[in-house]
Specification:
By secondary structure, this protein is α+β, with helices and mostly antiparallel strands. Helix content is 25%, strand content 41%. β21 and β22 form a beta hairpin. α6 packs across α7, α8 packs across α9 and α11 crosses α15. The longest helix has 22 residues. The chain is rod-shaped and about 165 Å long. The two termini are 89 Å apart. The relative contact order is 0.05.
Length: 718
């Protein structure tokens, strides 16, 4: 009323051959047919069908209570009910426009070319009647349903054929719960359905047939890109039972699926946003979810839903990952993922065979093989994953941020074995990195404090490969256990150990004593390599050949105490002995005579005489020491070494006055470093660019067993 558009138009409604039996109170109608009718139906925002108001009495419609849907049975006439029997009821070329206005974005369903035929319809509802419905839904969808319906009790047997049923018109029912846009998608369905309302030994609902989702495309409106797409998802030989619920599928075929996981600039994953209600960034942690979680926990001992899938066939799957939180952005993915999973079942002892192959970033092949049982109560898996020659530059931004250096070259191969049984996970991770090189330091505040280039140089062999074996084990029931976290921590522990004790790793390459490799020993005053140190340098050269990315840093060292005395003795010996053509050593008496002669030359005869007169020494000590109480104490105080003879004291003073200074000892330290370098380069053929000399060091009283140690250190090559 008051609207020019019709909500109901029935151009033709024919009822033919009506017969009425007053005594039996029966009406028989052989044929009812209506054609070309149009109906406009909508649900108001209060959930009321528009016809409910239109065909209600005026008084009831205008009242606050609305139309009376269920009149008092006492007001109805009593007695034997009339029986109406319609043998053939036909609706042809009907059109229905339905709109659900209870939704924020109203859903619209258009039914066209609707043909409905019902045979044997009787108001007693004692016998089943046949139904056939053919129509077009939203222009593209074709619906063909036929079968029988029995009302008391309700039993429905139908053959269903649905094709090209578009999903977009139904999306408004989901739009208030998600933030993605449905761009395309349709459903094909074909099979038989039985519904048994009365309690029987049969399931409440039984469906047998196939279901196919095709051309499914979903967009991320914020990033204006597709994030989920499926060419076709087919469930073939599907048998679904409800109450009791069981699922059996002959084959699942997933053709050309595409998924893109994106980490946004704010660090949030796109899935958490897209599957959240509009206006939120992630799924809310509602009390409802908490209750559900608690419920799931309490029901963890229940038997799993009986499911059996004979085979899953995956064809040309693509998975992409992008991280927009880094500069430059990270983009990588998997392509051409194809293979099968055969024998999936919730049965405890069942194990499915997995065989999948694909490529990482177009060129790097990988495969997954093994057995799994994810549907059973106790999950089981025994999988081997092989990745070959994955280009590491794709993840270089992560290396720049967390390692402090970008990856400029390198490939990664993985041989991973995962076993899960009785909630215990065991993982073997064999990692092979080939020809990895790193760029200049990025200065990232998130970078590890570990010297990563050194760790890489220690691990990289002479072929440019890094071979790492990382075993991992854990209990999946432990809330603190995270496989990824444990794996990363294990790797960090390995790197930390390598850089903290690099010679331990180098020693392991040659089977030597890693402690000895950290220094080279020299006799005090000498820069000549000892024979056993030559053997050590040979071992070290062998290790450097195995680790060409390492550089050896040599620090020449001299001891201010022991080396100074040794150098002075060498100088004094040269002055005493002079050049001797026969090469023989000087006799002791002659040596003493020469020492006294040099002493007199430097300090005078009187000084020599004092050293040779003990009484003079005692008197001098007595006059110089106010706290000396007797001659013996004075004598002891005056003699640095009481057992020394005068010539030895002369020698000591000559050594102290030999003039060996800082420059002499620094020169000795440099000569020691050069001796090490020259031996490594000339004798052991270590490349020149692998050996570096560090500024010489002068130390105090390091010498042990009459030797001085020059330290060695390892660093990453430039």
């Amino acid at each position: 009323k008051g609207n020019s558009e019709s909500v109901l138009a029935i151009p033709s409604f024919d009822v033919e051959g009506v017969s009425v039996d007053l005594t039996q109170q029966e009406i028989r109608i052989p044929f009812v047919r209506s054609k070309d009718a149009t109906l406009a139906i909508w649900l108001t925002n209060k959930g009321v069908v528009n016809y409910q108001d239109l065909f209600a009495p005026v008084d009831a419609r205008e009242s606050d209570e609305g139309p009376e849907a269920n009149p008092d049975p006492a007001e109805e006439s009593s007695g034997k009910p009339w029986v109406v029997d319609v043998q053939d009821f036909i609706l042809q070329n009907y059109a229905v426009q339905f709109e659900d206005r209870t939704l924020e974005s109203p859903a619209q369903l258009n039914l066209e070319e609707v043909d409905l035929q019902v045979k044997g319809l009787n108001t007693t509802l004692n016998d089943p009647f046949d139904v056939k419905l053919v129509m077009k839904l939203n222009e593209t969808g074709n619906v063909d349903i036929q079968g029988s319906v029995d009302v008391e009790p309700l039993i429905v047997d139908l053959d269903l054929k649905l094709s090209d049923l578009a999903l977009a018109p139904f999306f408004p029912y989901a739009s208030s719960h998600v933030q993605f846009e449905l761009i395309d998608g349709a459903i094909d369905l074909g099979g038989t359905m039985q519904y048994r309302g009365a309690p029987t030994t049969s399931p409440l609902l039984h469906y047998e047939g196939q279901v196919t989702l095709k051309q499914f495309v979903v967009n991320d409106p914020e990033l204006t890109e597709e994030f989920l797409k499926v060419q076709a998802l087919s469930l073939k030989e599907l048998v679904l039972n409800v109450e009791p619920t069981t699922v059996s599928i002959g084959e699942v075929e997933l053709a050309e699926p595409f998924v893109k996981a994106t980490l946004g600039a704010d660090g949030a994953m796109n899935f958490s946003r897209l599957f959240s209600p509009p206006g939120t960034r992630q799924k809310p942690e509602s009390s409802e979810d908490d209750e559900s979680s608690q419920h799931d926990s309490s029901d963890s001992n229940q038997e799993p839903l009986p499911v059996k899938i004979n085979q899953i066939h995956l064809v040309n799957a693509v998975a992409q990952f992008a991280d927009l939180s880094l500069e430059p952005n990270v983009s990588t993915g998997i392509q051409e993922l194809t293979g099968t999973i055969a024998g999936l079942s919730s049965a405890q002892l069942a194990k499915a065979d997995v065989e999948l192959k694909g490529k990482v970033d177009t060129y790097a092949p990988f495969e997954v093989k093994g057995k799994i049982n994810p549907l059973s109560k106790d999950a089981y898996s025994d999988l081997t994953l092989l990745f070959q020659d994955v280009d590491l530059t794709a993840v270089s931004p992560y290396s720049g941020k967390y390692a402090g250096h970008p990856i400029t070259k390198g490939k990664l191969s993985l041989d991973l074995t995962y076993k899960i049984a009785e909630h215990i996970l065991e993982g073997e991770n064999k990692i092979l990195i080939d020809q990895m090189t790193m760029g200049a330091e990025t200065g990232s505040p998130d970078a590890t404090s570990l010297p990563v280039p050194l760790a890489i140089a220690l691990l990289k062999d002479r072929h440019g490969k890094i071979d790492i074996d990382l075993p991992v084990r854990g209990n999946l029931d432990d809330p603190d256990f995270s496989y990824g976290g444990v794996l990363i921590q294990t790797l960090l522990n390995l790197l930390t150990k390598a850089v903290a004790s690099p010679f331990n790793l180098v020693g392991g390459l040659i089977g030597g004593d890693s402690d000895d490799l950290q220094f080279v020993e020299f006799d005090v005053g000498s820069s000549v390599l000892i024979e056993k140190e030559r053997e050590k340098l040979h071992s070290l050269a062998t290790a450097l050949a195995e680790r060409p990315a390492l550089r050896l840093e040599v620090t020449g060292t001299a001891d201010r105490d022991h080396d100074r005395i040794a150098l002075a003795e060498i100088e004094l010996g040269t002055q005493i002995n002079g050049p001797r053509e026969d090469g023989t050593a000087m006799a002791l008496d002659e040596e003493r005579r020469m020492i006294r002669q040099l002493f007199v030359k430097k300090f005078g005869e009187e000084a020599a005489a004092k050293l040779e007169s003990p009484s003079d020494l005692v008197q001098k000590a007595d006059s110089d020491s106010e706290n000396v109480f007797n001659v013996e104490e004075a004598k002891a105080a005056s003699e640095p070494e009481p057992a020394q003879e005068p010539w030895e004291q002369m020698k000591r003073q000559l050594l102290d006055d030999a003039g060996v200074g800082e420059n002499d000892m620094r020169l000795l330290a440099q000569q020691r470093a050069k001796a090490i370098r020259d031996h490594l380069i000339q004798q052991e053929k270590v490349p020149t660019e692998q050996v570096f000399l560090i500024e010489a060091q002068l130390i105090h009283a390091q010498a042990e067993e009459n030797v001085v140690r020059s330290p060695l250190s390892l660093a990453a090559g430039l």
